[in-house]
């Protein structure tokens, strides 16, 4: 086995020995803190409602409720706004299920005329369920106008160590949107003249084409020769089963053709550009990868054009019949998303102008020996390449605290590489590298409205659990 992976496995083995040799008495659990996810947000003129999230530091022990009181300024409940659940007096009671790590309620705008833009509602957590402790972020202010957040901290709602969510983050709105990563399979480009289909690489999806154009004529026999290779687990197993990289099977280096370009270059997707000539569009075999601990299975698909839109044909490998789905371009977003499970369009990405970066898992590449091969990365930051640009700054040149607008003159911002931040903000070993965030760097992010922020990651984990990183950010220049 090559030395890189030998060191990693040795580290894991030693960690296991330490755990086994430690005291078997279960330590007391830390307080389960309940607080708002954000302390201030805005409800823009084009928005009719907002979901307010409360978070817990771990799963709730039992069913319960959280009571939130509110004080409106310049607004009247029932006339200008309502809540879901409905309020009783000036309080909202929010149900909390056993095992949940979050709860939420909605604020719905019912009046869109006569507002001056200085209206607001201040919410306060009044009581929490048994077994919970009230946190420090116990008030939340909603302004009935768009805000430009100037300074905030955020714990990303990735869902924990199984990283079940992809989380889209809008810095200026101090808002995050968590979406179940297994809720979709394919994304269809909606911008410009692109007729491209993107895989859900967070689920370890891979695909290969076959020289057929009739989906009903494709069977499992068409996967002979690559059925055991079209898997990130199989690629990793083959790469780590040899001591000398030169002895690795050649097919693992072909795996970069079965995945989308990790930088987000739409000219380098695993599925070829959808041709206006129907017979040029081949059948693809897709390994849908793995959801949250559940294999998602295999499919055969074919995509053809439908005017300026798409038609997706898909079926199980051995099925003689296939299902068709018409997919319209979603002009408000970069992609239209589809679930093969439900055979329907699904909502995933916020509107293009409403997110800057996203936390996710991603199929990337790594290498030992002669060439790169497909490899799975967790805790990756991708950026919205439509209107958003980023740069890394080392603290050896200027500290996070000292970085101000004047320092922007020496910064080169990048907007054509979605993994420009990528995994560069964290380290996960093997020894002697520490596990955590890199304190020697921070990032500059310019959003689509021209607001420029500095952002530093402060924790890879929350209470020792991956999938809940933390960061702080400050406005450097208002757009």
Structural account:
The protein is mainly β. It folds into 3 domains: 31-147, Immunoglobulin-like (Sandwich); 149-179 and 351-479, no CATH class; 185-347, no CATH class. Helix content is 6%, strand content 37%. Strands 5-7-3-1-9 form a 5-stranded mixed sheet, with no helix packed on it. Strands 2-10-8-4-6 form a 5-stranded mixed sheet, with no helix packed on it. A 5-stranded antiparallel sheet has the order 11-30-29-28-25, with no helix packed on it. It is globular. The termini are far apart. The relative contact order is 0.13.
Query: What shape does the CA trace take?
Result: globular
Number of DSSP strands? 30
Number of domains: 3
- Separation, N- and C-terminal Cα atoms: 52 Å
Provide key terms for this protein.
Immunoglobulin-like; single chain; 479 residues; mainly beta; 6% helix
Provide a brief overview of the structure.
This protein has 479 residues and is mostly beta strands. The chain has helices at residues 3-21, 232-240; strands at 33-36, 40-42, 49-56, 64-73, 81-84, 91-96, 102-109, 120-127, 133-134, 139-143, 151-155, 165-170, 175-180, 186-189, 197-199, 206-210, 283-287, 298-306, 309-315, 323-327, 335-339, 344-346, 357-367, 372-383, 389-394, 426-428, 435-437, 441-446, 452-459, 470-477. The protein folds into three domains: 31-147, Immunoglobulin-like (Sandwich), CATH 2.60.40; 149-179 and 351-479, no CATH class; 185-347, no CATH class.
């Amino acid at each position: 086995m090559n030395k890189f992976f030998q060191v990693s496995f040795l580290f894991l083995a030693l960690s296991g020995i330490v755990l086994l040799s430690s005291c078997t008495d279960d330590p007391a659990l830390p307080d389960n803190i309940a607080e708002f996810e954000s302390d201030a947000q805005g409800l823009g003129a084009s928005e009719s409602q907002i979901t307010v999230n409360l978070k817990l530091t771990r799963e709730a022990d039992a069913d319960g409720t959280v009571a939130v009181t509110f004080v409106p300024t310049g607004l009247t409940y029932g006339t200008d706004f309502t809540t879901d659940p409905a309020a009783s007096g000036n309080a909202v009671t929010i149900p909390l299920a056993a095992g949940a790590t979050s709860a939420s309620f909605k604020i719905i705008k019912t009046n869109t005329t006569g507002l001056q833009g200085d209206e607001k509602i201040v919410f306060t957590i009044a009581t929490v369920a048994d077994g919970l402790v009230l946190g420090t972020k116990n008030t939340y202010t909603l302004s009935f106008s768009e805000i430009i957040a100037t300074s905030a901290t955020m714990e990303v709602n990735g869902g924990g160590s199984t990283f079940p969510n992809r989380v889209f983050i809008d810095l200026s709105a101090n808002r995050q949107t968590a979406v179940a990563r297994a809720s979709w399979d394919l994304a269809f480009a909606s911008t410009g003249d692109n007729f491209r289909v993107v895989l859900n690489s967070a689920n370890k999806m891979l695909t290969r084409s076959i020289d057929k154009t009739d989906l009903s004529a494709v069977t499992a026999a068409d996967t002979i020769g690559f059925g055991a290779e079209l898997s990130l687990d199989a690629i990793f197993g083959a790469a780590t089963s040899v001591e000398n990289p030169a002895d690795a099977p050649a097919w693992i280096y072909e795996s970069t053709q079965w995945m989308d370009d990790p930088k987000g270059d739409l000219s380098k997707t695993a599925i070829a550009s959808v041709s206006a000539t129907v017979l040029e569009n081949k059948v693809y075999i897709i390994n849908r990868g793995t959801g949250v601990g559940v294999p998602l299975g295999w499919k055969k698909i074919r995509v053809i054009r439908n005017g300026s839109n798409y038609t997706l044909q898909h079926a199980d490998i051995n099925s003689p019949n296939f299902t068709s789905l018409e997919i319209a371009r979603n002009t408000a977003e970069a992609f239209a998303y589809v679930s093969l499970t439900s055979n329907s369009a699904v909502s995933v990405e916020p509107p293009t102008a409403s997110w800057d970066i996203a936390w996710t898992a991603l199929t990337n590449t790594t290498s030992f020996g002669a060439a790169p091969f497909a490899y799975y990365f967790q805790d990756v930051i991708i950026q919205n390449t439509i209107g958003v640009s980023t740069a890394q700054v080392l603290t050896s040149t200027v500290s996070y605290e000292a970085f101000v607008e004047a320092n922007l003159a020496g910064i080169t911002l990048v907007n054509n590489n979605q993994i420009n931040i990528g995994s560069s903000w964290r380290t996960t070993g093997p020894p002697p590298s520490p596990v955590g965030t890199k304190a020697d760097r921070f990032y500059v992010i310019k959003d689509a409205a021209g607001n420029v922020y500095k952002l530093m990651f402060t924790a890879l984990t929350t209470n020792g659990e991956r999938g809940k990183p933390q960061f702080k950010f400050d406005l450097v220049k208002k757009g």
